[in-house]
């Protein structure tokens, strides 16, 4: 079985990182690679940032001056070639940047746990790192959504299983 190294960095101090979230991120990344039958050793970086920082990155790299939940920065060139770590031989997939502030808001808005939201954002971004793009066509969007939900279901954090119920 191929190895995956996930570097998780917290670059914000607004939202406390929940216990177990780093493990969840690693599980999500591994599940995407397994589902996509990515058979090579790989490395990925996941960073938690503030809304201010993700807005700045979104403005610089996507020319969109607004906050977003997650950004993906694949390390593939225009020809689809990926960079490789010279020391380990692992494919450098790229960087995932998550705004925890936005993730908290979206979890509340959608009525599910922060863990489910971060899991979804990680899976979503990993699929982007592997070349999927939901913005190219309605079909591509549907394909990507189905892959996201299939991976989350395998991990036990599917949409149906994670809604928060209010028992008041």
CATH class category label: Alpha Beta
* Distance between the first and last residues' Cα: 47 Å
Number of strands: 5
Low-confidence parts: 161-168
What best-fitting shape do the alpha-carbon axes yield?
A: globular
Q: Oligomeric status of the shown chains?
A: single chain
CATH topology-level name = Collagenase (Catalytic Domain)
Largest sheet, strands/sense/barrel: 5 strands, mixed
Radius of gyration, Cα only, in angstroms?
16 Å
Helix-strand makeup class = alpha/beta
Q: Can you count the helices? A: 5
Second-tier CATH architecture:
3-Layer(aba) Sandwich
The helix/strand series, from N terminus to C terminus, equals EHEHEEEHHH
Strand residue content: 15-25%
- CATH H-level superfamily title: Metalloproteases ("zincins"), catalytic domain
- The residue fraction in helices comes out at 40-55%
- The total tally of domains equals 1
